[in-house]
Amino acid sequence: MHPKRVVLMYISEVSGHHNATLAIEKAIKILAPGAEISNINAFNYTNPVAEKVVNSIYMGIIKVAPRIWDYLYDNPKIVKRIEKAKQNINQTNSPKLKKLFERLKPDMVVCTQAFPCGMVAGYKKTYQVDLPLIAVLTDYVPHSYWIYDAVDCYITPSEDVSLRLIKKGVPERKVKALGIPFDPKFNATLDKNSIFAKHKLSPDLPTILIMGGGQGLGPIKTIVRSLEKVGRAIQEIIVTGTNRKLYNALKRKIKKYKNKILVFGYTQNINELMSIADIVISKPGGVTTSEVLSLAKPMIIVKPLPGQEANNTAYLTQKEAALKVEDAKTINLIIEELFKNPHKLKHLSDSARQISKPNASMDIARLLLESRNG
User: Fold this and answer.
1) What gap in Å lies between CA 67 and CA 61, rounded to an integer?
2) What is the CATH number of the domain that holds 141?
């Protein structure tokens, strides 16, 4: 029997979808070092020019007119209206996927985003191929763009999401609530004192971690200014992702602030930074959220974007695992309130731990490795 061959598909290099495939790849390699893994940006592979255009349009809408995205996101009328166009696109991409799969000979294809999932579903239908297709959802509310008869298994973040999928018509036998995959290194026990020392931070001061996702989005500068009003000494760690403009702006002003502030760009040691944080202020991307939950960190979400972020926020606040703040200027008041009432911090932490799935990546990897070979 040949080593397990798995094709992982995502879109956009700097994204939670990509981080999820990397996490699954790492977990598979831990359990089966000989497995043959191909990690592919599906959109870039099939439509490299269109990928750049679509990403640019998406970022423009999110920054300038987020209400448009809110209208488009999982709108039943839109889903129905574009169904034919979607089928045509998938049919056009099928010959390219045929060449890819004939070369790689995968035992299965795993998609962490709906677009490649639709592409592979279309390929299976076009060529009548029995290739196992696994959809790994990375947000806490499933949208209709995921739904295809050709999907053999849906891996969901939670039992709540599984129920929603089933209500949308997905057979219960196809749904497994294993969690959102994230790097297994987040489960490692770290020496927090050495991390504090490495970054010249005090283990005796409250530490706030501020993140804006891979793109460094959100009102981070406003949050930093608000935290200057907190009536006690705190220290902040800010991660700006690929947003060099924000990184440079914060570095220029850092000496003017009273609080001790560290600024990072795109970094691979988020697990270390998160481990020493007392509170995480972040965009509620699915993978980031699963990391925060796994470490049982109190989370604050500031003005989430419509669509996935709003849905994730609704789930987290309903489960009392996060707080939502609409006005970044008032975040200092929330921080002061939490530090004055340690039981509120503990409740957030306990709630996060209750809904976390810290072994998601390893559980997903086991499921994939135990499934039948093609």
Assistant:
1) 8
2) 3.40.50.2000
Does 135 share its domain with 150? Answer: yes
125 and 273 fall within a common domain: no
Beta-bridge partner residues of 210: 238, 281
pTM score: 0.90
pLDDT at 77: 63
Q: Is the pLDDT of residue 373 over 50?
A: no
Q: Specify the amino acid at residue 171.
A: P
Say if residue 150 is exposed, middle or buried (CB neighbours under 10 Å; 0-12, 13-18, 19+).
middle
Asked whether residue 135 falls in the same domain as residue 240, the answer is no
Same domain, 172 and 151: yes
Distance, in Å, from the CA atom of 349 to the CA atom of 299, rounded to the nearest integer, reads 8
222 and 135 inside one domain: no
Pairwise CA distance, residues 227 & 232, whole Å: 10
CB 41 within 8 A of CB 19: no
Angle at 334 between CA 331 and CA 340, to 5 degrees: 140
Q: Could you tell me if 133 and 226 lie in one domain?
A: no
Residues of the domain holding 271: 187-355
Residues 6+ positions from 342 with CB-CB distance below 8 Å:
none
Q: How many CB atoms are located within 10 Å of the residue 324 CB?
A: 17
User: 85-117 burial, b if ≥16 CB within 10 A, otherwise e?
Assistant: ebeebbeebbeebeebbeeeebbbbbbbbbbbb
322 lies in the same domain as 210:
yes
Phi, psi of 102 (to 5 degrees): -65, -30
What would the pLDDT profile of 89-117 be if each residue is shown by its tens digit?
666 788 999 999 999 999 999 999 998 99
In terms of residues, how long is the chain? 374
What pLDDT does 75 receive?
59
First to last CA, the chain: 11
- Distances, alpha carbon 290 to alpha carbons 20, 65, 197, in Å: 11, 28, 27
Please say if the pLDDT value at position 263 is more than 80.
Answer: yes
pLDDT in tens, 28-40: 999 999 999 999 9
